[in-house]
Amino acid sequence: MDATGEVSAKYWDVTADEKEAFAAMELVKVQGSVQTYRDKLQVKISRIRKAVEEDNISLTDFIKAAPISPNDLINTIKRTMNEIQDQHIKTIVAYCLAKVEDKLMEYPAAKFHHHAYFAGLAYHIVRMLELGDFICKQRPFLNVDLIKAGIILHDIAKPEEMNAQLGIVTDYSDHGKLIGHIVMASNWIVEAAITHQIPLDSRQVVALQHMVLSHHNLGEWGSPVQPQLPEAVALHYIDAMDAKLQMVEDALANTAETESWTPMIRGLENKALMRLTFDE
Amino acid sequence: MDATGEVSAKYWDVTADEKEAFAAMELVKVQGSVQTYRDKLQVKISRIRKAVEEDNISLTDFIKAAPISPNDLINTIKRTMNEIQDQHIKTIVAYCLAKVEDKLMEYPAAKFHHHAYFAGLAYHIVRMLELGDFICKQRPFLNVDLIKAGIILHDIAKPEEMNAQLGIVTDYSDHGKLIGHIVMASNWIVEAAITHQIPLDSRQVVALQHMVLSHHNLGEWGSPVQPQLPEAVALHYIDAMDAKLQMVEDALANTAETESWTPMIRGLENKALMRLTFDE
Amino acid sequence: MDATGEVSAKYWDVTADEKEAFAAMELVKVQGSVQTYRDKLQVKISRIRKAVEEDNISLTDFIKAAPISPNDLINTIKRTMNEIQDQHIKTIVAYCLAKVEDKLMEYPAAKFHHHAYFAGLAYHIVRMLELGDFICKQRPFLNVDLIKAGIILHDIAKPEEMNAQLGIVTDYSDHGKLIGHIVMASNWIVEAAITHQIPLDSRQVVALQHMVLSHHNLGEWGSPVQPQLPEAVALHYIDAMDAKLQMVEDALANTAETESWTPMIRGLENKALMRLTFDE
Amino acid sequence: MDATGEVSAKYWDVTADEKEAFAAMELVKVQGSVQTYRDKLQVKISRIRKAVEEDNISLTDFIKAAPISPNDLINTIKRTMNEIQDQHIKTIVAYCLAKVEDKLMEYPAAKFHHHAYFAGLAYHIVRMLELGDFICKQRPFLNVDLIKAGIILHDIAKPEEMNAQLGIVTDYSDHGKLIGHIVMASNWIVEAAITHQIPLDSRQVVALQHMVLSHHNLGEWGSPVQPQLPEAVALHYIDAMDAKLQMVEDALANTAETESWTPMIRGLENKALMRLTFDE
Amino acid sequence: MDATGEVSAKYWDVTADEKEAFAAMELVKVQGSVQTYRDKLQVKISRIRKAVEEDNISLTDFIKAAPISPNDLINTIKRTMNEIQDQHIKTIVAYCLAKVEDKLMEYPAAKFHHHAYFAGLAYHIVRMLELGDFICKQRPFLNVDLIKAGIILHDIAKPEEMNAQLGIVTDYSDHGKLIGHIVMASNWIVEAAITHQIPLDSRQVVALQHMVLSHHNLGEWGSPVQPQLPEAVALHYIDAMDAKLQMVEDALANTAETESWTPMIRGLENKALMRLTFDE
Amino acid sequence: MDATGEVSAKYWDVTADEKEAFAAMELVKVQGSVQTYRDKLQVKISRIRKAVEEDNISLTDFIKAAPISPNDLINTIKRTMNEIQDQHIKTIVAYCLAKVEDKLMEYPAAKFHHHAYFAGLAYHIVRMLELGDFICKQRPFLNVDLIKAGIILHDIAKPEEMNAQLGIVTDYSDHGKLIGHIVMASNWIVEAAITHQIPLDSRQVVALQHMVLSHHNLGEWGSPVQPQLPEAVALHYIDAMDAKLQMVEDALANTAETESWTPMIRGLENKALMRLTFDE
């Protein structure tokens, strides 16, 4: 097991029966020996069987997950949604949230870069809400409703853009590839408005679409328009701050305590991070 | 009058009455003398009055316009729309077209770069339809319905993005700045689908949105997704070909016959074009 | 065989005799078994012999080729050349064409990106001539002779830049690496002019060199000058349109009917394409 | 006065005496009439005299300043400094702060982009400290001392890089142009360490230099190394968040209430911002 | 006169006779007074007449020129040419040099960036030859003939690309715009080879073309191929070194001794240079 | 052995004893057979033992080294240092040189790109001093002391940035990653000045720091400030010229005489170089 905390395993001479017996996302019990292959550790499996009840293990023991329970995360998001004063904005947020509430319980926020684990997206939203709350207090000219709604909606369509199981993105959906989660969320805002008879050219609908559409800041990062509302500028930086610091936190957590450097992190200018303490 | 075909005019010592009397987009008759100011010709106006019926002139004598009448352009667009075989696609195109049909009679295709004149957008669509028709015959694997619909819809929301009068863009609308014409058109497709009960995840709705969203090809040119349908690739190049060649045609038309070089053209890598003939 | 339509094969324990017996670009008959190696199919060859007459197969059964016969392609190119009115231009085109006529029968248009098969370059030229013909009719200000000549000459030196066999580029020539096909074609125009006593500063020579030199549009794409003649702008977009749509067509043709997505295509912004039909 | 809140004034026919009598950064009383010149308002001054005591005005009535008094800002910075636990870090921060304490009372944070007013730099530091405090609570893996020290030191040499009066940068110093404030601050850390006999290769010295050197994140933004400590990543995003939101706040404050759009803001992707309210 | 050493002058109320009397590139004698306009000095001319013999001045007193006489420069270039051992290379260099020998006596090396004065191009060549001589001695693996020839030929077509008088470029020629000096020089090499029956695919012809074509190093700087011969790499850096250091030298020479900073220099990353001495 | 002059070797079935017996950077004697693996030659080792005295070989027989002895290189650098007239500059150079004198005897100039061998850094400095000497004679406005000092100091901290053995960089130091050799050298100048009581704002200290800090020319290449002294411009181009031509020389030396093309060279725009001679 290297700094990444992962090790590959090989089971040679699989029988046809065995091939059918095991499926992805199932727990198994294996016996084998550890070898070195191309300078990496590798487990050569000698025996394998499905996990049974007596093994007393469950899938959630083996998956990375956000440090707060999905239920608590969803509750926080809903409570925040209910604090929104503007009725149009609250209605639209509720409509979009209802579309993915089940998936929010388990979807990651991204395939690789950050929060790539069980309930990672909900966790990302909740941490951003904390930061958004602070920023709104520090900068009272910001519209609190818009910040809250923008944070909840900015990645809300990601569970439809990606296919994921147990916090691991396996693929992008056709819809996700052709439209992208940013415009999908924008579509949902339109749907919500039509369904609830909120005029499409009302300030609320336009502002919410703008928040979602511009939150990647630049065209080359996927935003068809650039932030032009004070709250849209804030949303982009709240998102960036949380995503980048979570990459840092995850990289440190995934690096063995004995290592002073993490692997290179693509989202942080391809740099590795050093773990530094002064108290030695 | 220089190579641009424009000359500025100054009327000094305007009275308050006069200031109120004249409005933009009105015809006037002026008398004055031509001077040179900072190496450019300038008309110093000595007398000015509103045009009257006896002057026997009309606004359309003075504005640049597409070489085909707006009525003919709109008819061609509608006829093409009616040729679309797929009923969902035709319904969506008809819905979006109805939103801007009046404005299509006079809106330009852009503020500066190309087709910046009366009915320029409709003219751009019609020329692209001609080219699209050729390409579909040359490359039968392309879906004709999707090409036709994509061409009609790709810039369909521009009249809502811009404010224009007589073919001249005066400003962008708030809506246009915050959402952009690309996502506005995508919104209209969603609206059309909901209105006509076409499922939002039907292939037609997704494909039409994809065509519109990806037609600028790159994120830095405003497209939140890149072309991933054969027809979307074709649409981008049909649009580019028509826009660029129209820039060429317009630049030549606006340059005095006596000049062998046009002014620099921003959309053509900031290069000027040379008028070249071999028959001298 | 994956979506690329290719499968690798391994023949272990080759004898020295066998090593000498087989050469590249020869047909062989093999017998073997299919295995999986690193998640890809692989043929393990057990027996191998040269193809003989009785096998009743020919090399052209196994190579990708343009859908029109090389003879027909060359004839179309020559017929178009003969339609050129301007005698200087026609003379230069004829001179350059004569240099590579034999190779045009089989050379591809590029190593990887597009038309990478037998007679691919001639096919590319012919399809561009069709498109050029349409564009000249739609935009009568374009000089037809210059468009025709530019299309025929734009890649005419590619067969000297690359070494290819049976439509597959094996290497670039020293000459090709040091000068590049763009300047090589420009050199040939100079040669042609000197040979036929056409003044080097005549409009025809300068214009043809400009067409060839600028057809990649930007310096970073290999053009030492940018398009500054109307026809040079047109040539670039005709070339781009044909190359990109051929990439699309080839990618679809090389992808199994059962797959809805092609592999990623480098020349199309590294995106895969989706095969979409509405009639299901 | 346009959206920028500024208006130019012209005083023609100045006498030589008058020319000598008035200096920059002095208060004057003027009388004149307002005119339009090149579509902008302009004051034509008819009388001018120096301000006298009876006018009962002071310079600080006319300069933009941070909303908190310089004394309070400095006190907050010093109190934070004193909270630093690590003695080496505290010593170095104190040494650097002492070098510019007087100038911190009045220097802006930048020439144009953000906090460009009286005590703007101290204000920037204090707001960042508030944000840093929040982030350290939300992300306990961050070293609080390093965050505090990094925030105080990151721009500490700016008052030596720029020459400013009353919050307005008039010029860059030779030293500032040749070395830049980032390396100047890094130099001061070295000086501090040598003066106080802290080893130059101690973790504290290296970490503080790294914080300062990397806080612009990318080489093209002026940082010779990229963030490779968790706290350095945090510092960059704290700085970015505060600078960008202050640009937003300043732009709104400097735009007349009657205008819904601010001027374009260079630091915000050259976009203007819209003032949006929902309660109308 | 500011740091640029230039001052503009205005002559108002010109009579029609006077307008015809004076032409560009003629010497005149003026009388007038100095004023400030838009913060710049300006001469208001009160009297003007043509210079006459008695004024005892000549045009060359007023133009910037290389510090070595044109005759000496040309002689050095020719002597170096005659030292070339390879007869093919020498023949080609002689052919190209003969084409522009007269113009080399006075042409500048560029419109703005460097050596923008009388005989500037010849001076640039001669200084590069000195540097090339040193480099060939330091790095004996370089082919001396190729370095010498490359230096003489690299910009040899510039006098045909630009129109200049007295060392000042007034315009680019049509030929220069459409082909560019790099390919023009390459053409001349082809011409030379054909004229002197040197095979076009001989190593000498290919190498010389490669040297010229690649000397701008990158496509975006105008080179259609990148350096792939050792001597081509050397040529690019010899050219860059001489051009950049001449920009430095010219900027210092054109800046008043009393100024410590030059104006910004576009070719030096848009930076100004400081004049620094230690002996004060 | 391919064009790179390297061949990999495999020793299978290593015993635990053997694993401990051999360490990196020791000489061994092996016996084995040559095989082809993945189209590359590979030595399959059958016997291995440590080299003994009787083998009569030494480590320096097997490492790449600069063509001049380390002692001679160091002596040249010191002699040049002693020629510096300005006492402050000489003192600072001596201080920095003393810090790394031992390592200069063996350190390479870079990990991969150029002078990547034993004493490569010292060799780079010496060749640059030769070039600097020539340039100062050609351009007398340059300050000779500053050029000499800049050349000696520009990479002086590289031996602290990298860990190397026998001319091969094995790693970067923590210090090197967090501060970088450019700022480390700048730190040393500050240290030297403090130690020898040279004022930190003296022209000599500022100029030397500027030389070092700006010598990579652009921010994206690691320089926090851009060259703004004439000598800093010269230093950058002297460094570039020497590094690039050494890459050329090394690539040719490392390519078998029978090959006409070197491998691709990353530092030379990823191009391979052709070995060209005319005398065949």
Helix content of chain A: 40-55%
Backbone structural class of chain A: alpha+beta
* Major sheet size, sense and barrel closure of chain A: 3 strands, mixed
Number of strands of chain A: 5
Globally, the shape of chain A reads globular
- What low-confidence regions of chain A span 5 or more consecutive residues with pLDDT below 50? none
* Biggest interface pair, counts: A-D, 44 and 44 residues
Order of helices and strands of chain A: EHEEHHHHHEEHHH
Task: Kindly report the oligomeric state of this protein.
Answer: homohexamer
**Mean pLDDT over the full residue set of chain A:** 89
Explain this structure.
Six copies of one chain form a homohexamer. In chain A, the strands form two sheets. A three-stranded mixed beta sheet of chain A has the order 1-3-2, with no helix packed on it. Chain A has a two-stranded antiparallel sheet with strand order 4-5. The first copy, chain A, contains nine helices and five strands; from the N terminus they run E-H-E-E-H-H-H-H-H-E-E-H-H-H. Chain A is an alpha+beta fold. The first copy, chain A, starts with 7 loop residues before the first strand and ends in a 27-residue tail after the last helix. Helices cover 46% and strands 12% of the residues of chain A. Chain A folds into two domains: 54 residues, no CATH class; 180 residues, no CATH class. In chain A, a hairpin with a 2-residue loop joins strand 4 and strand 5. Chains in contact: A-B, A-D, B-C, C-E, D-F, E-F. Chains B and C meet through helix 4, helix 8 and helix 9 of B and helix 4, helix 8 and helix 9 of C.
